[in-house]
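Q: Could you fold this chain for me?
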Amino acid sequence: MAKVQVAINKAYQPVFSRKERTIVLYGGAGSGKSKFAIQYFILKYSREKRTALVIRKVGATIRDSIFKEFVTGLSEMGLYNTSKINKSNLSITLKNGSLFIFKGLDDREKIKSISGIDDILIEEATELNYDDVTQLDLRLRSKASNQQIMMMFNPVSKANWTYKTYFEKEAPPNTFILKTNYKDNAFLPKAYVDNLLNMAKTNPTYFKVYALGDYATLDKLILTNYQVMQEKDIELPKDTSFIIGMDFGFTNDPTTAILLGYSASTDTLYILDEIYRLHMLTDEIYSSVVKKGFNKYRIIGDCAEPRLIKELKLKGLKIEAAKKGSDSILHGILWLQSRNIVISDKCVNTLTEFQNYTWQKDKKTEEYINKPIDDFNHCIDAIRYGCEKFNTKNRLRTLEKSALGL
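A: Sure. Below is the predicted structure, expressed as structure tokens.
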């Protein structure tokens, strides 16, 4: 085995002695799950020649996430100079011939052609579905010993397949589950921890899910009238009109852009693609929009950011401000509740929001009120803005609770 320099958080050290086929690492942000998984695989693959498939739902997200983290891990462990890093086809070969192949599940045919897979590492497993993981499990049929599927994720909603599979009842056999959060990561910067602790004061619910890694409670969900489909299976009617809805954020809230299609003949809203990123400046927003091809469409953006809208317009985007108006959130929700909605499985952040967007409860009466939580709404707000084009009859002055499903 190559000499490797590595510092591993104490909470993860028991994983090295586990022989289960499925290893589930879940919990809060900042817990070091991904970093440990990379350390674990590099160490395991330094001992003997093996082939690993490293997976995310959408291939386009791999280069700047798990692949980049692997390269950083090799550097930190003193193995960068002895490894072959192919940035074109996203693969890494260690000195002993061990191979890491990075693929998205939107490239299924190429995955099927890969043979001799000994282990699988899945990042953001909540983005996948149960069938995805079942099919990946069938790919592990080499003669290597101790074949494993390791997956990492932050819990999202109890509606997600991970909760139903591993936590709703007894976990499947031959499965090891480890929960961690920021308290288990000795290498976190103090500023990051302070930011999380401040969240506990300002937004306790989000702190529980995001920082502590607890599953969100299925409360009074606002949007349940949707189905998720694979991108290849979505057939758009001929009368489908397209629009981009955009919401702006920066430090704690992401900037989002959602490609929407609406068919009046079938009264169906199609949510087809998304941008979801933190810390984007104007130039980065513009580049992301162009890279996705969203610049071909009319864009409706949050009117609370007139400067950004003007800057993006000067760069050539066909963007205008949303009109909003009195009770615009509730009118937009009512319109969405009244449609058929199809969400492409590549829109993983949008789906997470649909699974967690709930009505607020009155603290005194414990009754639901016609006001949504101010969380899990960055994609949904963008969708509401975009749907202003389609929602031409939302001029009602008042909305009854019964109309909103309350």
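A (continued): The chain has twelve helices and 17 strands.
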